[in-house]
């Protein structure tokens, strides 16, 4: 039986605005094997920007 962290590992989403702000979330390796890109709010830049998965 697979462990909980094997299927859904923690990933760090880093702001593309260059502020250094990050979000931490889990992602499914089976459904999204490539790097995750989400549009979220950056409180330092005070606007919505793309957050990309950093490894």
Explain what the structure shows.
With 55 residues, this protein is mainly β. The protein has one domain (4-54): Rubrerythrin, domain 2, CATH 2.20.28. It contains one helix and four strands. It has one helix at 4-7, and strands at residues 10-15, 22-26, 37-42, 47-54. A four-stranded antiparallel beta sheet has the order 2-1-4-3, with no helix packed on it. β1 (10-15) and β2 (22-26) form a beta hairpin. The chain is elongated. The protein starts with a helix and ends with a strand. The model has no long low-confidence stretch (mean pLDDT 92).
- Helical residue percent? under 10%
Average the pLDDT over all residues and give the rounded result.
92
Question: What is the CATH C-level name?
Answer: Mainly Beta
The CA-CA distance between the termini, in Å, is 26 Å
Strand content: over 45%
Per DSSP E runs of 2 or more residues, the count of β-strands stands at: 4
CATH superfamily: Ribosomal protein L33
Structural class: mainly beta
Uncertain spans? none
What's the architecture in CATH terms? Single Sheet
List the keywords.
ribonucleoprotein, ribosomal protein, 4 strands, Rubrerythrin, domain 2, mainly beta, 55 residues
What is this structure's SSE topology?
Elements: H1 4-7, E1 10-15, E2 22-26, E3 37-42, E4 47-54
Antiparallel strand pairs: 1-2, 1-4, 3-4
Quick structural overview:
This protein has 1 helix and 4 strands, in the order H-E-E-E-E. It has one helix spanning 4-7; strands at residues 10-15, 22-26, 37-42, 47-54. It has a 4-stranded antiparallel β-sheet with strand order 2-1-4-3, with no helix packed on it.
